[in-house]
Amino acid sequence: MQKKLLSKEEALQKLRQYCAYQERSHSEVQQKLWDLGVRRADHDEVLSALVEDDYLNEERFAKAFAGGKFRMKDWGRKKILYELKQKKVSDYCIRIAMKEIPEEDYHRTLERVAEKRWESLKGEQYLVRQKKTQDYLMQKGYEYELVGALVKRLASK
What we know:
Layout: H1 8-21, H2 26-36, H3 40-52, H4 58-73, H5 77-86, H6 91-98, H7 103-120, H8 126-139, H9 144-155
Helix pairs in contact: 1-2, 1-3, 4-5, 4-6, 7-8, 7-9, 8-9
């Protein structure tokens, strides 16, 4: 069955709601255009209209994404950076977004997450506990140097 093609105006209306609900990246909106069955020729015009009306702002999206993933999910910089690249966010916007994470908060969060993980592995053998804590923090996207030093400190307590 052929999908009904939406007019530019219908697509614009749907995408305004889509973008108003939460911040979106350009690539997410682009994908939504395909999903809605909008003609390829209309994509650039629809995207331009959304940018002009301030429904779509890559810098704002990147800041919200980085801040949200850090505060809500305790993600490290590497994981945030990787995810933003996956969403095809520009390097410029990624740099600005990373500045949204205060250095002091970053270290405090890393320490809190590490201590919580370390405590949850109390019954484990010493080296297993160290390895599992380190792996967990790496998977969360924290830098190897910071993780290594912190796990050593936890292990020596």
